[in-house]
Every structure is written in C-alpha cells, then in structure tokens.
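ok trying this again, last paste got cut off
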Amino acid sequence: MTPVLKIEDVWKQYRLGVIGHGTLYKDLASWWARLRGKEDPNAPIEFSSRSNGGGPDRLWALRGINMEIEQGDVVGIIGSNGAGKSTLLKVISRVTGPTRGEIKIKGRVASLLEVGTGFHPELTGRENIYLNGAIMGMKVSEINRRFDEIVDFSGVEKFIDTPVKRYSSGMFVRLAFAVAAHLDPEILLVDEVLAVGDAEFQKKCLGKMRDQATGGRTVLFVSHNMAAISQLCAKGILVSDGAIAYQGPIEEVVQTYMDKVTEDLEQEVVFPDRPGVPASFTRLCLLDEEGRKTAKFANSSNVTLEIEFMVREKLVKDHIFVLLDRSDGLLVTKVSDDDFGHSPPEIRYPGRYVSQVRFPGGILNEGAYRFRVVIGKRRAVQYDSQACGFFQIEDTTDYRESCFGKRNGAIMVPVEWRHLSGPTDS
C-alpha cells in the first residue's frame, strides 16, 4: 500500500531566542528552498546526533526522523515533555519547515495543535470556519454543507458570531476540533490540546476520531493519556530526545514508554517550602509493612503512604485527599481522611503534621502506580496538590507460570468462591 505520509531524514533545529535569520534576504531564501523541497541554504552545516549539536544557542528538536504512515492508520505518538512530539506534528502540518529532510504528503491535512493555531482572533467563529476551510482548499459550497454540523458538535452556537479572542480556552478548543474533524481531511493531526476540554467533550472527540479512522482516514494523535492512546490507536511511535526510540503495535510502544518512566522509582519525594500558602505538603514517603522505605511491593503486601505537611494558618474542617493512579493515567481510587468512619482533627493549628494511609494488599494488580495528594476543602479551595513518584507492584504468586502472562484488569478483587454442586454418580 502506498503511504499517505512519508518522512525521510527530517531534522529540525531552533536557534534559541532567534525567530528569523536576521535578514529578509535569508528568510526569503529559506522559505523558497522549503517551497521547492530543497535544502535550506541557511541551515547549519553540522548535523550532530546530540540534541544541542549546532552549538550552545541551538537546539535540535527533531533528529533524523524516518517514518511511513499508510491510509487508515491510527497512530499514537507518545513521549515525555520536550521529546519533540509537537514539533513533529508542526513540521507535518507545515506550520514550520524542517531544517533538513523531506516530507511527502498525499491528501488534505487538518491539524489541531496549540490553542489558537490557524484561527484569527479578530474574526468571529463563523468567519474562522470559512477561513480554515478555504486554507484547506475547500469550496464555499462544501463548507456550507458542513457548517451546521460543525457548530452543533462544538456547542458554541450562541457565540458563533463573537470574535474568538473572547472565547474561553475550552470554547476555543471545541470549535477548533470541530472544524478540523469535519472538513473532510484525509489526514487528521491532533495534539494534547484535548486536555483543555471537559470529560464529556473529550469523549466526543475520541468518538469522532474513531469515526474518522473507521472511514479510512489517517489520524496522528499526540497525548500523555495512555488510556486514550491505547483505546484509540492500533500503532504507536515513541519519541525521545527528538528521535524515534520505538515504533510498532500500540501495546508494545506504551509498555516501552512506561518501562522507561518507571526506571527511576522514587520511595520518597521532598517538596520545597511554600511559605505563602495556608498549608502545603513537604514530604511523601512509601513504606512497606515493616516501616522501611521502598518503591517495590509484592501484590500481597500492604502499601503505606506517609504524608508530611505544614500548616501556616488555622484550618477548619479541611481534609487530605489521596488519589491512586495507574501508570497510564487511569484513576484507580480516591479516598479522604474522613472515609470509613475516620475522624480527622476538625481544627488544625499551625505546625508540622504527619499522617499515614495504608492500602491493603491483595487488591492492586501488577504494574506501576502513582499517588497524588491534595489538601483543602471539599468542592472548594485546594491549598496544595502534589504527586509522589511511581512505585511498582509485582505479582509474586504463580499466576505468570500457570497462565503464561500478566493478570488482566486494573485491580485484583479478593472474591470468595463456593462450589456447591458437581456431577453425581448415576
């Protein structure tokens, strides 16, 4: 099958603090070279494998990217912050040109990158829909046929004739995604901006991207939400330090990324002092059943989180909340210090406090997890929110040996079996 997107040895370098080359002549020469698919005459000669190969004031955002995407592929692009994921989408969508290399695209591309990309702030939502359609090469009649569907999906009908500079970030993203997804692109590029929307809209967006893929269109999806990536995509690309570190089936790519994330498990995290807030966390520590610091637990063992925090102003009826996330971002549970009949102090006076919460063994499945802690009032102000480093649960039973693999599911439920009857002798 002929690829709809082919990237050959693409490099992208930025000069820190420099927008252009310094002269109009050089900027035009670079633009003309990119337009003809030629090498930029103003690009640095040295191409190092190091991210800062061009010198102390230069940064390699992409380094030797090679990839082919076929029609109908739904590809998740993952990696840590600063890895080069967003730059890759910008180069593909031609928001910025590569310093070196070639990109071949077959078909119409629609992109939803940073909030604001492709929209003119002074124009209304209606005008921006037609502007984006024209940029994509669509006729007015084509946009007219899609207009009502776009507005209905975005949910901003009341404000469609308001300049988008007055939109909230959520409204902006809703309209931008609706435009990008409904103007019949052959290739849809979506960056992490979906995180701005609410949960209901994110669900609509994922459903729309799934529909696009089912219709034979190609989707490239950048996200830190491993659950959404795994649900939507069949293939994956792991980007690290501007280069492709791994590509293949999405399950393998996600697992490779999570293995990398959990290499440096943290059994204790210390936070800097925050004197300007009424209360803040100072230390989170993971303890085993003997009270020893550790970040690796057997699935049958209790996991204790020790929480140290500083109170600077008298707190009345405030709570500590603990959220347990799986490594792919799935929320496993949320608890507070007044759950299950516990009675935290109604008043906490200024000073240093230490609390512990114990999660019983035999519940968490094998894998990587992370605690998040919050101090504040219910449905009101949060004084502080912090995350503990990842920790690991290891299955120490004979399940792997007997069943040849990891136990499925987010948790293990300690159910009780009772076999009440069986075959009887005739």
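PB: full thing came through this time. The two ends are 62 Å apart (CA to CA).
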